[in-house]
């Protein structure tokens, strides 16, 4: 799907930490000639800051070129506009520091007192870096928030969807490699979890999504929007889980109404199944239980069948 790995974004230092790092490195510069030594110090500070800014800037993808799924998912999680503004500020600071250093080197060459030039350069560099401290902090926050964004492979995908608390994550844990958290309250799953399953014809992605309520898109919270993006962009096949016991906290009618909307609103083929079959005897659809294991093999069979004909990429 893309090589964007939000998990790999580096930690971003605060302004103070970055200044410390640069000045500490410069303090290690040795030499007998005071003029030469001071110039080396300045070059070191400039290099440390330049390298650092470039590393942070290049760790971010070009957001316009990301696949739509990622772009929308990133924008739900953080603000792409704010990230871009922050990166532009880092770029500005990098250039500004370089200018200060170049000017200082010229001044020393011209015969100004190296100690005085160095002191004034350090002051100006500190002030430039403190100016972008809010941007550095935002980029670090963004990095932490983006940790939850999964890296998806361009592979056939089954999306598990349904109302909150109906047993989606429990099923995903049973039939795939990922073990999302399971709990007795709704909206336990807030992010997208990606597990895999080997089928005869290759590997299928099994995607656990946050619970959805039956309401218009504009009223949905961030958590629900993540599920919608999976249905819209990733699903080759949707398994929609209905909890007829209503112990999830929502009526079967509400759950059926959302099912209809998903059937109308998305292209992917969809199958609806009943969960918690250990608690009821309704069998007008396939019913499964994560507790007794009833119906689980059938669900796996359905996935096998569905993906038999799909072309798998060579890996
Ligand atoms: N009796 C019974 N309880 C189940 C079954 N599957 C899940 N549960 C219970 O239902 C509750 C919700 O399970 P989850 O797997 O977290 O449900 P979810 O749909 O992922 O919930 P959200 O992430 O909040 O949307 C938990 O208390 C589970 O133990 C089942 O087959 N039978
Ligand atoms: Mg869940």
Summarize the structure.
With 315 residues, the chain is an alpha/beta fold. The protein is built from ten helices and five strands, in the order ααααααβαββαβαβα.
Question: Which SSEs are present, and which pair or pack?
Answer:
Blueprint: H1 15-27, H2 34-59, H3 68-77, H4 80-109, H5 114-131, H6 133-146, E1 157-162, H7 168-175, E2 193-199, E3 202-208, H8 222-234, E4 237-242, H9 252-265, E5 269-274, H10 296-308
Helix pairs in contact: 1-2, 1-5, 2-4, 2-5, 3-8, 4-5, 4-6
Feature tags:
single chain; 315 residues; alpha/beta; Four Helix Bundle (Hemerythrin (Met), subunit A); Rossmann fold; 2 domains; 10 helices; binds guanosine-5'-triphosphate; binds magnesium ion
Mean pLDDT: 94
Rg: 27 Å
CATH class of the largest domain: Alpha Beta
Instruction: Name the bound molecules.
Output: guanosine-5'-triphosphate, magnesium ion
Strand order of the largest sheet: 2-3-1-4-5
Gross morphology: elongated
Distance between the termini: 13 Å
Uncertain regions: pLDDT < 50 for 5+ in a row?
none
User: What is the CATH architecture annotation of the largest domain?
Assistant: 3-Layer(aba) Sandwich
Q: Considering DSSP H and I runs of 4 or more, what fraction of the residues is helical?
A: 40-55%
Kindly identify the CATH topology of the largest domain: Rossmann fold
For the record, the count of structural domains works out to 2
Q: Secondary-structure element order, as H and E?
A: HHHHHHEHEEHEHEH
CATH superfamily label of the largest domain: P-loop containing nucleotide triphosphate hydrolases
| Strand percent estimate | 5-15%
Total DSSP E strands: 5
Helical region count? 10
Overall SS class: alpha/beta
């Amino acid at each position: 799907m893309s090589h964007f790995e939000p998990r790999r974004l580096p930690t971003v230092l605060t302004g103070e930490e970055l200044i410390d790092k640069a000045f500490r490195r410069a303090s290690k510069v040795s030499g007998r000639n005071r003029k030469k030594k001071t110039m080396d110090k300045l070059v070191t500070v400039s290099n440390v800051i330049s390298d650092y800014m470039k590393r942070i800037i290049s760790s971010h993808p070009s957001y316009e070129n990301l696949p739509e799924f990622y772009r929308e998912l990133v924008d739900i999680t953080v603000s792409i506009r704010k990230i871009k503004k922050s990166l532009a500020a880092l770029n500005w600071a990098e250039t500004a520091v370089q200018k200060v250093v170049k000017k200082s080197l010229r001044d020393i060459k011209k015969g100004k007192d190296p100690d005085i030039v160095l002191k004034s350069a350090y002051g100006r560099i500190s002030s430039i870096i403190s100016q972008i401290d809010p941007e550095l902090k935002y980029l670090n926050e963004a990095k932490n928030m983006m940790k939850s964004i999964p890296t998806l492979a361009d592979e056939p995908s089954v999306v598990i969807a349904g109302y909150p608390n109906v047993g989606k994550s429990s099923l995903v844990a049973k039939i795939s490699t990922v073990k999302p958290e399971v709990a007795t309250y709704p909206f336990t799953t807030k992010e997208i979890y990606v597990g895999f399953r080997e089928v005869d014809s290759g590997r299928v992605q099994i995607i656990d999504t946050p619970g959805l309520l039956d309401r218009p898109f504009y009223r949905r919270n961030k958590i629900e929007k993540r599920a919608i993006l999976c249905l819209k962009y990733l699903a080759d096949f949707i398994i929609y889980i209905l909890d007829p016991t209503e112990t999830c906290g929502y009526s079967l009618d509400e759950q059926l109404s959302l099912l209809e909307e998903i059937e109308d609103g998305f292209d992917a083929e969809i199958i609806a199944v009943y969960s918690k079959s250990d608690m009821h005897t309704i069998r007008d659809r396939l019913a499964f239980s994560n507790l007794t294991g009833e119906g689980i093999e059938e669900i796996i069979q359905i996935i096998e069948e569905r993906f038999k004909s799909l072309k798998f990429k060579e890996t």
